[in-house]
Amino acid sequence: MPDPSAVRLYATRLRQLAGRRPSDRPTAIAPDLPPGRVVSLPDRGDVFVREQDGPDGRPPILLLHGWLASAELNWFGTFDRFEGERRVVALDHRGHGRGMHPVDPFRLVDCADDAAALLDVLGIERAIVAGFSMGGPISLLLAARHPRLVAGLVPASTALVFNETLAERLRWRFIRLLELGVRLGAGDRLVARLAFDWGRVDERFAPHTSWLAGEFSRTLPRALREAGTELSRFDARPWAADLDIPAAMVVTGRDSLVPDHRQRALAAALDAPEILLGDQDHDAPITAVDRFADAIHRAVSLVDEALAAPAGRASA
Questions:
Q1: What is the DSSP letter of 196?
Q2: Whole-Å CA distances, 147 to 66, 70, 112, 113, 269
Q3: Strand 150-156 to 127-132 pairing
Q4: How do residues 93-136 score in pLDDT, each as one tens digit?
Q5: Which of these, 79, 128, 247, 276, has the minimum number of CB atoms within 10 Å of its CB?
Q6: 42-58 pLDDT per residue, tens
Q7: Could you give the dihedral angle defined by the CA atoms of residues 78, 79, 80 and 85, in that order, rounded to the nearest 10 degrees?
Q8: What SS3 class is residue 185?
Q9: Which H or E run contains 227?
Q10: 144-153: buried (b, 16+ CB within 10 Å) or exposed (e) per residue?
Q11: How big is the CA angle at 253 (ends 250 and 257), to the nearest 5 degrees?
């Protein structure tokens, strides 16, 4: 994670953005996305889901997005990459995007159980689950708590644990300041500017930058803090290696939020081959749309190979 000086930088950006007027914001133009709908999960609530149809015969893909984001922000290009190949489903987690607004505090295990309930409602018996950043812990918890539903895992830019160093502990303490800035009206671009470098946005997003910022602003301030706190407490080191499930890992080699050695530790625990995006940071889904989507596609193909030869493991 960034060194403590990042806190000063983020605080400066917060002050700059807090004064941004609504009239400064251009009209949002959304990109083409698969159809979205609200799905009711029995005894849980309603979730917003985007679905892309595909032929039968191979496990569908369930996409789990990261902290501060939404399904369409993380997976905009990934939908396109699998078009015509297989069914793809993505949901917005609690307090993120158009996800449910529960009274109870945000918990990663609840997100995992939401995903399991969604698969059951949609009649999906087993899925390959791809989880970016925070979606990685959710995917691991889904596999641990509902193994019958998970055919394979594709973690991306994520880790077994997120809170080991002093710099990381300082970063997590900054969450309350970030939440306050959003509550005070720093607005749609605050979280987005903290999440990635606007100067590196992929050309495919160029017509949609206002929409992009607005999507980040959908994250509830309370969920921003509570989800960050949950991530700071997450630690799958004692149990991840026991999952014994086909997996392939997408590693962002210059990740300033989840160092590559931390990502590789997860890959080792899962005995997963690595797909390396060596020059990419944590914002790869937005700054390198096609390369990130290709890496996810390759990882899913490796999981397919492992499923076809269950006695062995696919190799990159």
A1: S
A2: 21, 25, 11, 12, 17
A3: parallel
A4: 999 989 998 888 999 999 999 999 999 999 999 999 999 999 99
A5: 276
A6: 999 999 999 999 998 89
A7: 100
A8: coil
A9: helix 221-233
A10: bebeebbbbb
A11: 90
